[in-house]
Amino acid sequence: MTMFRKFLCSTLGVMLVATIFTLTSNAQSGVENAEETHLAPATIRTYQPSVRYTNSANYTLKANGVVVPVVKGFSDYDYAHFSMSEGPVTYELTILNTDKVHEYSISPKKLGIQAEKIEGRTITFTTQSDEYLIVTMNNRQTRMVIAADPMEKDVPASNGEGIFNVTSAPYHVVSSGTPATGVSTRTASIQQAINDASQYGTLQGGGKQGIVYVPAGTYYIGNLVLKSNTAVYMEPGATFIGTGKTVDYTEHWFKDSMGRPATWWISTAFQSENIRIYGRGTIDGNGQALHDDKTSNGKGMINNLVVPIATSNFVMDGILIRESSGWAVVTVRSNDLTFTNLKLFNSLGMGENDGIDICESQDVVVQNAIGISLDDPFSTKAWKADTDIASGKVPWPGNPEPVQNVLFKDTIAWTLCYGYKIGQGVMQDQSNIVFRNGVVYKAAVGFAIHHKYGTGIVSDVRFESMDVEDISGSNEDNSAWMTLFTVNGGNHGVGPIRGVTVKDITVRDAGESFAKIKGLEGAMITDLTFENVYMPGSNTPARTLQEMNFLNKEHYSGVTIKPVQNTEPLPLINLALHRPAVASSNDGIENTAPYVTDGNLTTRFGSKRGVDPGWIYVDLGETKKINEVRLYWEAAYGKSYRIQVADAPNQEANWSDVYSTTNGKGGLERITFNEVEARYVRMYGTVRATIYGYSIWEFEVYGPTQ
Question: Which of 66, 131, 278, 508 has its CB 3.0 to 4.6 Å from that of 317, i.e. a possible disulfide?
């Protein structure tokens, strides 16, 4: 299943001349107002959530008339998870604790899903196949995530030859709603089932796997190690949960930046092969509790939930990953890995909780996945042998390896950091990495190559059919739909970026700052192709880097833009460059006003937070003809402000307006006005867009003829 195919199917369905609406009374489907297509309405299979979870206080959901449990997730979203057969599904989504639906939006926006009916607190809408969706209603902070998977295939019998059911003899594992007792015994019994399944599969030969069958239930467990020729089937409703107690887990490495040991909760045996985790179960790290538990070591702990390490031919399908306190899924020095129908549901309030990180691995496919996390949901990395993650109490086996042949396809990212990223670690080469048909629901940076650590080469990278919906906030100084840049992080040296293709991109939000192509001396960024990049509000592809908002460019060459490439506009003379600047206030003891004219897009002015009005002016040295101001806002921008000019700045009466707005957008704002003569030019802010002050990277002034 691909999002493109599903979108095409939806479009063709709308075009059917014979489309009519029918009423169906099916016990499983129960569709009302279902759109007649070439397929009957989908059959819905719901799952009973673990007793650990409570129902959402925000939403209820029906799919084809079937009530689907909605689980309380985190402060930013609740979710519903179920499976469905092929065919259309009509949703009835109800928002609670309000009078009615005032507004709504459904993402991915490219699917064009609109409500067929809005009645009271309920919206009704239809998709033509299984989709992962994020719905906002009444601008409520807590969104609704709908995770509709395809119906399961290859469901094993619960008992029989080669089936090792953990609740049957000799294991007798009992589901428990509490982690208080029996954790070590339960863990040992499940591990024994894994060992027995591995032995069975290995003896059978020919790629046969013994199957560990995990029935629906709640299982608080410690560390597990998966072994060769083993499949772990998690029945719908089967839930592995971390205890939240550091004493129950093995320390594998130490995360320097967090000051905590880390555990590989469920990992593979070194030099293993032919392992599968599948079904519709949940792996819940209970990460916040583990992070905060200092009772046994005084530090707390973080967890990587699933770690395929030194393995090959590994498959994960249909699993819901929830609440890691470290990187959730980490592949390490492995090859031939496949992840499908993957739900990565992390908190947007806990740092360092990436979704899936492909580390030093080759031939990897991540397809049909949704990643929600404060940190990067989808990324690739490569490290040195002595990096903290690779050199802990249990070092990564073997030698450092490159990242090669990785495909991320049909994915949705929601994060406060980078939606899709190569880096920061590039201590080994990374090549042939493809991000295709991805949606950035919300991020500080849509997608990027962030070459921060190491001298490795990044080459042959493709970003294709990407859709950027919302760029909000910033990560360091980055708030953009795309960035490509190199940093000599930790003095580990620098390396080049070569051969990047950016094709068929829809940018609905360019960000609050500017895009970068920023190499370094000895680490050029070369051979870049941009094809069919549509910027916000434009129905024609961008023809220059400037149109794509790439305003920070250094040490790069070989740019091709398709289908049409225009000459980049000649640079005008910035009349404010290196001129004196004076501000109403500073957010600290340092005078930051000079930073707005220093020509450096990494330094900024900031006025005192929480104070209106706030202003800053530039002295051009003499009276000059001007007709344009460019403000490069940091995230704390002006919602309402004026551009003013004066011949003498000492009296308010001397200032006159040449421009005013009550709808500032942030990012780069190019402000043009009728030609005037002035020596002093001021930004006078009256309403801040944030709780902070007014913050500007650069304040540029231009004239009509230079």
Answer: 278
In 223-319, which residue ranges form alpha helices assigned H by DSSP?
287-292
- Which class is domain 581-702? mainly beta
What's the CA gap between 166 and 288, in Å, rounded? 28
What pLDDT does residue 706 have? 54
Tokens of 490: 């930790």
Q: 234 and 278 in contact (C-beta within 8 Å)?
A: yes
| CA gap 108, 321 in Å, rounded | 21
Longest dimension (CA), the chain: 91
Three-class secondary structure of residue 197 per DSSP:
helix
**CA-based Rg of the chain, rounded to a whole angstrom?**
27
Domain ranges of the chain: 3-150, 173-361, 416-569, 581-702
The secondary structure element, H or E, covering residue 192 is helix 183-204
Three-state SS at 549: coil
- The architecture of the domain spanning 173-361 is 3 Solenoid (2.160)
- Give tens-digit pLDDT for 32-71: 444 444 689 999 999 999 999 999 999 999 999 999 999 9
Q: What gap in Å lies between CA 65 and CA 364, rounded to an integer?
A: 38
Structure tokens at 430: 């990374």
Amino acid at the residue 381: K
Average pLDDT over residues 526-532: 99
Nearest-angstrom CA–CA distance, 302 and 264:
9
Q: What is the mean pLDDT of residues 308-314?
A: 99
Return the CATH fold of 3-150. Answer: Dex49a from penicillium minioluteum complex, domain 1 (2.60.350)
Q: 632 and 601 in contact (C-beta within 8 Å)?
A: yes
pLDDT surpasses 90 at 533: yes
Q: Give the torsion through C-alpha atoms of 315, 318, 322, 324, to 10 deg.
A: 10
Contact 497, 451 (CB under 8 A): yes
- Distance in angstroms (rounded) separating the CA atoms of residues 524 and 486: 9
> Residue 314, exposed/middle/buried by CB under 10 A (0-12, 13-18, 19+)?
buried
